[in-house]
Structures are given as structure tokens and as C-alpha cells.
Fold each of these.
Amino acid sequence: GENVEQHPSTLSVQEGDSAVIKCTYSDSASNYFPWYKQELGKRPQLIIDIRSNVGEKKDQRIAVTLNKTAKHFSLHITETQPEDSAVYFCAASRENFNKFYFGSGTKLNVKP
Amino acid sequence: NAGVTQTPKFQVLKTGQSMTLQCAQDMNHNSMYWYRQDPGMGLRLIYYSASEGTTDKGEVPNGYNVSRLNKREFSLRLESAAPSQTSVYFCASSDDPQRGEKLFFGSGTQLSVL
């Protein structure tokens, strides 16, 4: 099955700085890559996703990039704010397949 | 619009006891999932149901059983709880995961097995 690895496990940045979280996947057939944000004590919620037919997607301060050849994708958060502090999970899935495989999570701490 | 509703929110069991976690969604989604979340391990799939009447094992199914009671409800049963099953459990649903439709999660159940 698919194996998704996520780095770093913890990340601490100063407010206003950028944060980058990286994930690699093993199954070259994976073609859908969502990112979920989980605030303390809350449920995970989708913040952005990308499909394999595009290399980059942006939504305000958040962007995701995908390198299919290297089988890795990254989450970029610019101008970080304290409310960005949370655990972020990457995931991978593929067409005609009902499973999502998650990375182990990155705890992001944005210091004011 | 409630989305995905899980009960209970907290539960403490003794080793060997049994319990059922309930999950219901009101979004008319076809697929439903049970995940467990452990520190440093991310979200691991226990069981999933691609449609009403079908269930399949995920990454960590041992010690669990599931029932897709109807399109709305998907329950997870621990027949004989063990301390290794202490975890936070999330139910989720998706309209069409084959097209990469996003997961909607319930609020979670924190389970402790003593």
C-alpha cells in the first residue's frame, strides 16, 4: 500500500515568517493530495488540495506544490499568524481507490 | 447542518470490556471511514465502507468490527478492549473519494482503556 512520510514533526516560526511542510509518497499511482489542519482538540479540516495534473495551487497565504517525478508535495504558508498554530496532515489517494493515507503530522507553532 | 456526528465524546473502559462507537452523517455521502489518531502516528485507517452494504479493512483492523447500518450510519465495535486501543477515534465521510472528494470528520471520541 501507499506510504506517506511527513517532515518535520514540529516546526516553530516567528509570526510573519514562512513555514514549509514536506511530504513524500511511495505509490506513483496516487493522484490526489489533500492537506488537513487540526487545531487543538478539534477535528481535522481540509485547507487545500492538489491533483496530479497541476504542479501548484494557491489560496491566499497557503500554497501547495507537487513534484510527481520525485513523488513529493509541500505545503507553504506565508506571513504566518498565531492562528496558523495547529497540527497539519498531508494525505494521498488515487483514482478508483477509496482510501486516504495520512502522514504523521507536523505541529506548527507560530510565536507572536 | 450537523455534518458528521460521533458519540460518545469520551469513554473509559476496563480491559476486556466491549463498546460501540456510533457515527452518523447527514450529507448523503456514500463512503464512511473510521480512523484512529495516536501521537506521532497521524491518522490510521481502521475500516471503511465505500457504500451501503460494503465494508473493508484498512491499515489497522485487528481488534475491531464495523457495521454499515444504512447510508447514514457506520459503527465501530471493540469486542474486548485492550490498553493498546487507547486512542482518539475519528469517523469521517466522503461523497466520492474516487474523484478525490474531501473527507469530513466527526469531532472525535477519546477512548481510554485501563
Amino acid sequence: GENVEQHPSTLSVQEGDSAVIKCTYSDSASNYFPWYKQELGKRPQLIIDIRSNVGEKKDQRIAVTLNKTAKHFSLHITETQPEDSAVYFCAAVKGTGGFKTIFGAGTRLFVKA
Amino acid sequence: EPEVTQTPSHQVTQMGQEVILRCVPISNHLYFYWYRQILGQKVEFLVSFYNNEISEKSEIFDDQFSVERPDGSNFTLKIRSTKLEDSAMYFCASTQTNTFSVYYEQYFGPGTRLTVT
């Protein structure tokens, strides 16, 4: 069935360093790839997304890359700050029919001051 | 900025009881979703709903679950006979769409924490 694998499960970085989170999806019909940040007890918040016709997208300190052939996509956070500490989820959305969304297992990011 | 709202924020129920979780999607959105997140785990897709019918559902969404849009604003998730393993945070989400464009961004509500005892 559809699956999204996400690595690492935990990531600890020093403030100012970069953080990279990687995901792999299985369903070739997926064509939209959002990344969510979730703080404890809160709703997932969209931080960046990419569609399958684009290879890279950047928004200030956050960038996402997509390799559709390899079914890989990655989140890059530069100049990390303590407030970036949260759980990050990748997801793959099948953009036909009912937009079924499969989430990765999450990465807990700790940014040490 | 318009937001998805959900009520109640926390629901405690006994095993075997029926619960209805309520959501008010953003007013011009046409696709609606329910997700579940067991504590400390990933977000899991339950169902998507468009034009008054289910568009997609996951294997989690069995006969115990149903969804309904009873009026022009509410979107509900009913669990007929709750089990201990239904304890989770349930998120509603909605997406804008129209005839000419497909918008993918899903706006999540704050969630309802369901505790089954």
C-alpha cells in the first residue's frame, strides 16, 4: 500500500547549523508534497510545499527539494533557531480523486542554544 | 484570517458509546478531511469528502465511522461504538477548490482530543 518513510526520527543540531530531513514515498500518483511543523498539543502547520512539476522551492530559511524519479523529497532548514524545535512531518498527496494524504512518521528536531 | 474550528476540544467517553466530533470548515472550501493522531505517533488519513459524498477513505475508516455534512457549515465524524484504541486527537481539515484550479493546501483545525475509558 501507500507509504511514506521519513528519516531521521530524531535530529539534534546546534543553533545556527542546518537541519535536513528526508522522505521517500511509494505511490507514483502522488503529486503534492507538503511539510508540516507540529508543536506539542497543536495542529500541524504547513511550512512549505512542493508540486511534482517543480524540483526545488525556497522560502527564507526553509527549502524543499523533490526527486520524482527516485521518489525522494527533503526539507532543509538553514540557520536553525531554538524556536524551530518541533516535530516535522512530510506528506505525500495523491492529487486525483479524494486527495488522500499519507504522512511520514515525523522527525523530532531539537535546536540547542 | 478564516480558520477551521472544531468542537469539543476534549471529549471523554466510555467504551461502547457513540461520539460525534464536529468541525466547521472554512466557508468557501469544498473538500473536507478527517485525520487521527494517536499520542506520539504520526497523523493518519481517515477520509476525504466532497460534494456530499466520500471521495477517499483509508483502511482505518471502517463501518464504525461515518461522516456527514448535516447543513451548510458543519462537517461531522461519528464513531458508533468507541473502543479504547480510538483514543486519539482527531483533526478536521479543509481545502479550497473550484472548477478551474486545484488547491492542495489543507487547513487544519485545532483538533478534538478523544479519550475512551
Amino acid sequence: AQTVTQSQPEMSVQEAETVTLSCTYDTSESDYYLFWYKQPPSRQMILVIRQEAYKQQNATENRFSVNFQKAAKSFSLKISDSQLGDAAMYFCAYRRRRDDKIIFGKGTRLHILP
Amino acid sequence: NAGVTQTPKFQVLKTGQSMTLQCAQDMNHEYMSWYRQDPGMGLRLIHYSVGAGITDQGEVPNGYNVSRSTTEDFPLRLLSAAPSQTSVYFCASSPPTGRAAEQYFGPGTRLTVT
């Protein structure tokens, strides 16, 4: 069965600094997608960034980038120039192409220190 | 577009009662899913559907039923509510993986079972 593991329940970072959130996953599939979602206190789920497994190039979206290591089954999220609005719960998610099943990790709560 | 809508937003049930959480989307998405979110547990997949007439079990399906008679609607039924089902429930929809599609989430339903 597929699993997604986020080993850091909570993290803190100083405003304007860089932080990296970890995610590892377990799968026997070769064709899948990975996502990072952000959930602020409003509970709304917001897509931060996505990565297709067949693409070797790491995805970037403004201050957000990933380090995708397919062989190691690792998908970490780097947030540069952290801002107060980045404080939220961050979830890593895996979607397998074969049947579209999507599962999430347990999340990492990110605190931004002013 | 209204996106993904869920009703009700809040619900209190007594143990043993049954109820249906409603979910609808107006984006013509084939894929729909239900998650429950509990502190420290992340989002856990309950059931999902890849199209009308097709449903499958997720990670925690026991105590829940679903059906998908139309593309738009994906109701979640609690057969006999238990305190362990106290949670926040999210419905989500997306196009199929061909476009590395993100999921669109509803606002959530907070359910308390006493």
C-alpha cells in the first residue's frame, strides 16, 4: 500500500529565512504525481506546488521549490524568504495515475517567527 | 462556478444516529473523494470515485457508505454514528491525472458525535 510520511510534526523559522519540509513516500508504481498543499487556520486547502514523477526537473513556484529524488522516494518543499502568511499546516500528497487514488501525509505545522 | 460545496457546515449527532453529508461540484470533474481530518492524523481517505457509478474504498472506509449516481454529487453516509467519527470531513474533486490535476476542496463539515 502507498504511504506518505512527513517526519516533522512542527517546525519554526525566522521571517525572511529559508525552511525545508520533508516528505517521503512508498510506492511500487512508476507513474504518479506529488503535491504540497497548504492549510491555513481557515481550513481551506490551497495547492502550493506539484511535481510529475516522469519529470526530472524540480518544480518551482515563486518562493516555493521542491527537491524531488525519485530513487529515494523523497519530495521535500523549500520555502525561501519566509513570510508571516506562510504560517500554516503543510501536507504532502501522492496521486497514482493508475486509478487516481490520492493519499496525504500527516502534515507539518509551520510557525513563522517575526 | 460554485466549485465544491458541502452541506451542512456543522452537525451534532447522537451515537447510533445516521446521516448523509452532501457534496456537489459544478466543474464536471470525474474524480471525487472524501477525507476526514483529525489532529495529528492528517487527511485520511475514506472513499473515492473515478466517475459516475464507480466507487472504491480508501484508507478508513469502515462505518461509511458512498454512491455516485451523477458526475456532480458524491454523498457520504454514516450508517450508525460513533464518537470515533467525530472529525472534520472534506470532499474534493479533480479532473483525471492526465493533467497532473490538483484537487479542489470543499470548505469542510465539522461533525461531532456525542
Amino acid sequence: EPEVTQTPSHQVTQMGQEVILRCVPISNHLYFYWYRQILGQKVEFLVSFYNNEISEKSEIFDDQFSVERPDGSNFTLKIRSTKLEDSAMYFCASSTDLGPEAFFGQGTRLTVV
Amino acid sequence: GNSVTQMEGPVTLSEEAFLTINCTYTATGYPSLFWYVQYPGEGLQLLLKATKADDKGSNKGFEATYRKETTSFHLEKGSVQVSDSAVYFCALSEMNRDDKIIFGKGTRLHILP
């Protein structure tokens, strides 16, 4: 069964460093998303991406964040200068235009020290 | 704005007990409704969905019915198993194909053998 894959599964970085989280969405999907879940809290929407541009972003998604689809398969989230409060589980998701549900990857746990 | 409210956890039950996890929503439009499940150490998996009023979503013995009149989507299972121990998230998405998913805070379920 097709699935969304994310790498790495866990990343530790020093405060102020740049990180890139990588995702390979399901191949025939058209819409791509990033969500995050701070430990013990709710899953929060960060950004949606369609047709090679951002279609919506939340207040969390400030200038420190960017997304890119550098080729036909990868979808990346970059955090330019990480802060302690960026520590969270980051989920990538994708969906088709056939239904409202999104399919999520296993997540990348980002720890900023 | 749109929001989802679900019962606080943790919920602890004995194996074979009946499960209900309450979920209500607020939406400006006519959303699709979901239950996602997060097993320990794993990502978010779609458990079931319903896209219009009175629809019943079902999967793995779990059921939820879209009740527009009470704006509810309660999750039920007649006989829980230890393997059902997980965090359950109620969620909604508006009808636009690329619209974000809004999650509730999650309910941790613990099943005792």
C-alpha cells in the first residue's frame, strides 16, 4: 500500500542551526502539508502546498520556515534558525482531489538543544 | 473559526468493554469528519471518515456517525482489545480539496488485559 515516507525519523540540532525535514508524498497525490505536534499537545497545521506554491499557512509558519518541492517526488520543510520551541514531531501529509482525507507519514521528531 | 472538541483522557478500560469517545465540532461550512489514531511510537493513521450528515464511518470494529443536528461524531467500539491502546484524534476538514485538517486535542486510550 502506498505511504508517505519521512526522513530522518529523529533529528537533534543545536539552537540556531538550519534543519531540513524531508518527505516523499504518495506518488499520485497533488496536495501536500506539514503539521507539527509538540509533545503532549494537539496536532497543528503549518502549511499546505499545491501546484508548486503555498496555498495556506498558519501563524506558526513564520519567516523562519519554508517549503519546497525540489523535484517530482520530494517535499521539504526548512527551518532556518531553530529555536528550543521548535522541538516537536513534524508530520508530512498528502492528499488527492478525490477525497477530503489526508495521509500522514510516520513523522520526524526534531529536538533542538 | 472551525474547531474540534473531544473528551479529555486518559480513558482506561478493561478488555472487551464498550468504548465511547465523544467529539463535537464547530464549523462555518459543511465539513468532512475523521478519526485518526496514533499507536505508540507511530504516526497518524486514518481510522474512519464521514463526509455528509448521517453517514456512518467504520473500520476495525470502530464506528462513528456524522450527526449534523448535534454537531457530533462520537467514536464507539463494542468490545475493545489491548491492541486498541493508542491516542485517538477527532478531526475535520472543510469541503475544499486542499483545506487543512483541524484536530482535536486527542484522547489517550489505555486498555487493561
